[in-house]
Amino acid sequence: MSTQPVRGTRDLLGDDYAKCSYLNRVAFDILAAYGYQGIETPIFEHTSLFQRGLGETSDVVGKEMYTFADRGGDSLTLRPEGTAPVTRAIISAGLTQTLPQKLFYSGPMFRYERPQKGRYRQFYQLGVEYIGSAHPLADVECIALADHLLKAWGISDYQLHLNTLGDLESRQNYRQALVDYFGRYKNDLSPDSQIRLEKNPLRILDSKDANDQVLCQDAPLFDEYLTEDSRHFFDQVQNGLVTLGIDFTRNQKLVRGLDYYCHTAFEFKTNSLGAQDAILAGGRYDGLMQQLGGPVVPAVGWACGLDRLALMLTDFKTPDHLKIALIAAEEGLEPISLKFAQQLRHVCVPCEVFLKGDLSKRLKAADKAGCQVAVLLRPEEYQSNQVKIRYLQQDFSPAGDKETIVSISDLVPHLLSLKKA
């Protein structure tokens, strides 16, 4: 038996856990300000949900999904992404009659990929879905929310890349142009891209194969095949970003890796993580709801990898919260120290009761545990309804004293004042 985690997974401990918690904590407050409500979907779904939603030619479906048969013989898949499950949930709950819906999720996803720095087979993703609005300004708001979050997390080393995938007519025209172009080089394409040429040639533009990328350099550009409606939609998105003062780079070769995207596509990229440069990505996906058996409903959203974002929190420090040590000098006072601890915990003051060793050892243990203040219960003070406060870190001493005596009735207010300071 191995005591190591499975390859591509990890235990979140210490600063790693603190960073992910910090990202979520900051995000949840900002998401509420934008009107988003949380949703949590099951970790596994019917495999057909992702086959239909993501497209069978996608790398995710073809190579990366964790799929298994349960004891009843049903084919199930650990969720590789969040958009298809959220869309399924909207249909399941009958919420298509109460649109728009603004939802966010945060939790583990699963893909069988080659593990790299910041990329795991079980990874953590935060995403938003704005379902029910066809207006280009919904796209602008989604992008603005992403930009707001990155800045709130203290992340500044990124650039917004923006493109349009057009409407259905635009994509059909562009598809034929790509078939005509790449068809001349079919034998030079990678095996995967030869399959994409038949089923979804747009995916060739997203190929990671070096030879495919060379061929893509001279491929037709989407702009030549956009309808007037698509151009007008994209103009409104760009103008909206300019109005909000959000800088972006037009990237005509930016495509999304899943079948349900149309119109706006965007990625926030960074130079600080090596080859894994995308930290947040998304776009519009007006056809997904219908693909999954629901009505035609427009939608836009994005997702970001918390594992990768955590690597960018280079100046992150675990906040120094006030932590109190409760130490009894005699065995008979130990239950009283626990009683005081419960009073403090009920007003959300972190504290620990130290029960091992003599007074000196308990004080050393409290200091090692990061306690800044110790409450000492000794018979001489306790008989007079008092306790001794010892400031293990002088920064927490109101008057710069090493110790002070306070009455038991004033104990909690005194410690709360230290917390506030």
From TrEMBL:
GO cellular component terms, A-Z: cytoplasm
GO biological process: histidyl-tRNA aminoacylation
UniProt xrefs under CDD domains: HisRS-like_core
Chief location bin: cytoplasm
GO MF annotation list: ATP binding; histidine-tRNA ligase activity
Keyword rRNA-binding in record: no
Catalytic activity: tRNA(His) + L-histidine + ATP = L-histidyl-tRNA(His) + AMP + diphosphate + H(+)
Xref: Pfam families: tRNA-synt_His (PF13393)
Catalytic activity, EC: 6.1.1.21
InterPro entries: aa-tRNA-synth_II (IPR006195), aa-tRNA-synth_II/BPL/LPL (IPR045864), Anticodon-bd_dom_sf (IPR036621), His-tRNA-ligase (IPR015807), HisRS-like_core (IPR041715), HisRS/HisZ (IPR004516)
Top-level enzyme category: ligase
Gene3D superfamilies to which the protein is assigned, alphabetical: Anticodon-binding domain, Bira Bifunctional Protein, Domain 2
Entry keyword set: Aminoacyl-tRNA synthetase, ATP-binding, Cytoplasm, Ligase, Nucleotide-binding, Protein biosynthesis
Residues given in the record as L-histidine binding sites: 81-83, 111, 125, 129, 256, 260-261
Compartments where located: Cytoplasm
Annotated Aminoacyl-transfer RNA synthetases class-II family profile domain residues: 1-335
Source taxon at top rank: Bacteria
Complexes and interactors: Homodimer.
Family, similarity comment: Belongs to the class-II aminoacyl-tRNA synthetase family.
HAMAP family linked: His_tRNA_synth (MF_00127)
Protein name, UniProt field: Histidine--tRNA ligase
Organism: Candidatus Finniella inopinata
Lineage of the species this protein comes from: Bacteria, Pseudomonadati, Pseudomonadota, Alphaproteobacteria, Holosporales
